[in-house]
Amino acid sequence: MRGHKYVGMDVDQATCVVAIEDESGKLVGESFLPTNGAVIREFFKGLEGRIHVAFEEGTQAAWLYELIAPLVEETVVCDVRGEKRSGNKGDRVDARKMAKRLRLRELRGVYQGDRGGRELKELVRGYNCLVQDVARTKSRLKAAFRSRGVECKGIKVYGSQGRQEWLGKIDSEALRARVRSSYEQLDCLKRLREEAEKAMVAEAKKHPTYGLLITEPGLGPIRTAQILGVVGRPDRFRTKRQLWPYCGLAVVTHESSEYEQANGKYRRRKRPLRTRGLNKNFNRTLKTVFKGAAKTAIAKDPFKQFYERLIEKKIRPEMALLTVARKISAITLAILKSGEEFDPERVNKAVPDSGNQ
User: Which contacts (CB < 8 Å, 24+ apart) does range 237-245 have?
Assistant: First the structure.
């Protein structure tokens, strides 16, 4: 029993259902474990052979990965959202399917980072959540004013000054109390966001490449910290072609009937690829970072000149901005990998092939 064993896990808050297959696909074990670190650790220590484990990405995924990875030969955390499901659905069924797909090499792992970058990753997540909470609270405030026909364009409605005047425009006492509560919530969230920003940037400054990245146009302390927290090890992206889909900057193409017959031979049709927008499965933080960096960077050289060259080539402004974002992401990856400083002279050497998409 010392050959390969493939372990599929279905995990929830209270229970882990475990299914084990051998190399031939035979079910050799099934267990029900409490979602408890000590119990799970002892279970995997007791397994014999070369153990491969798979479970879905979820709330406990990072914790389970750190717990199990040192004890087994391979740990795969997979994302099966959006996949078509067939047959019955249940914890035992899902665990067995996971073990089978792991054995057949049908699963693609999701990067979980390493222990060294865990602190920054969590701080980035905390900061991002607070940014979203602030935006939601602002939306609720404006919605409340609009619901009583009060015009509230711009950002003055969010300020600390003139709030009594704004509250006086509401003719409902109950709504006025809700808006007053939203103002208090907004003030609290802004304070927490500032604290989270300081902690995130302070942790990012410990990274050896922080000082190199922050010199790149469009990347300030916040965006630099977010990149370092999300990217983790840059060597997991072989080239920029692997980074672009991860950032949501890859152009999706669609082609059909590619070949035609001419003079008794088959040849590829001479027609441009049809695009279908950008890829939809991506990391939202990095897409926001690089698109925001592109908008900031084109305000001055060298990216201003680069952007204007694209416009002169009759490329649509939105596609030109996308190309700038891809250029910035490619330069960022090169800096992370090489440890070299940003070189402005290299920005305008050539327009990348993405500019013609």
Answer: 237/333, 240/326, 240/329, 240/330, 240/333, 243/329, 243/330, 243/333, 244/326, 244/329, 244/354, 245/279, 245/281, 245/282
Average pLDDT score, the chain: 90
Q: What is the pTM of this model?
A: 0.83
Listed residue (22, 31, 17, 28) closest to 4, CA to CA: 22
What are the C-alpha distances in Å from 39 to residues 15, 46, 64, 302? 11, 11, 12, 57
Same domain, 82 and 135: no
pLDDT at 225: 97
- 195 with 72, same domain: the answer is no
Nearest to 43 by CA among 25, 27, 30: 30
By C-alpha distance, which of 40, 56, 50 is closest to 2?
50
**One domain, residues 223 and 246:** yes
Are 349 and 216 in a shared domain?
A: yes
Residue 251 has pLDDT above 90, yes or no: no
DSSP 327: H
